[in-house]
Amino acid sequence: MVRVCPGSPLLAALALAAALLASGCTSAPERPLLYQPPVVSTQGVAAIHDIFVATTRQKAADPKAVFDRRRSQDSAFSRIAVSVPEARKVGSVERPKGSRPDPARYFTARSITAYDGLATFSDHVRDAAEGDGGRALVFVHGYNTPFDAAVYRATQIVHDAGYEGAPILFTWPSGGRAVDYVYDRDSANAARDALEQLLRSLAKSGVRRIDIVAHSMGTWLTMEALRSLAIAGDRDVGGRLGDVILASPDIDVDVFKSQMRRYGVPKRPFFVLLSDDDRALRFSSLIAGQQPRLGEYRDARDIADLGVIVVDLTKVKAGDSYNHTKFADNPPLVALLGERLRRGDKFTEADATEAPALLARGVGAAAEVIVTTPFKVINMVVGG
Fold it and tell me: What values do phi and psi take at 245, rounded to 5?
């Protein structure tokens, strides 16, 4: 018999798990993304973004939902135009309500264009990237993310970060409910090869720089794809790999260390954004036998030695009650993300040493953001 004392971390984790599971049972994983007739009004609209979409989800039975939670053996490719309302707070995602969305109040999908294969898709991404020096950004979402939510989050990041290259959403078949954690993990497993193929195809098409922003369980999927590329002798995707930003990574710490040892010290340090108050990762840790997740790991120096820059956001305010999406819903942080992505193709010693100052300017010194950049990483970057 196991005794659980009041106030114990295990009791708190169990209570959190119960709350998450309860919320998962009432969520609706399939929601409409498109509407008939299409939304055309631009009144009250701040901008319309073309989001390129690569997915291993199956097509939904309802065409308005576009893709659903089921897995497909084949990838599908499209481009979705999404508008962002003017009247909103930076970092927020106003999801449509009702049978007909008001684009002046909500993120609104307006149209979709399908592509007949990966090569055609990659060529269109390359053309769209030309306006920003051939740069493309791949966003890989996390656990408990329905298709429509993935599209809106990708749009929000692109808009609030001021990203001007070609944005790509890589969306894998999340069940879209808290109770689907194991299903989601297996879906991420099944999508590893598709993400690797996407990165290779983008490089082959002529895209000159590929940045990756991955969140939560999507970080594990991203690391697995990069590990596979390293094993194949192409770990920086033909020299096209830019910044790799792992936000709130839902990866077992020991697994991450193993992945990084196989990948090797990267030419450009990866960024790991973690937070000790991430309640969603506490739930993940509970499921994993109370093994620490990378996104809540306290020994920053331990993982920084692997070739990463660790940014501790524990004391930064979050927009969600689980403190799991700070990188995107905190206005200064998402602006800082955009600044990092705009800094150019070369990562210098100055980039590393200026990081604490940039963060302090963005979120305020009182936030006590901690950046761990070991000298060996800086030395590795400048080739000293």
Answer: -115, 115
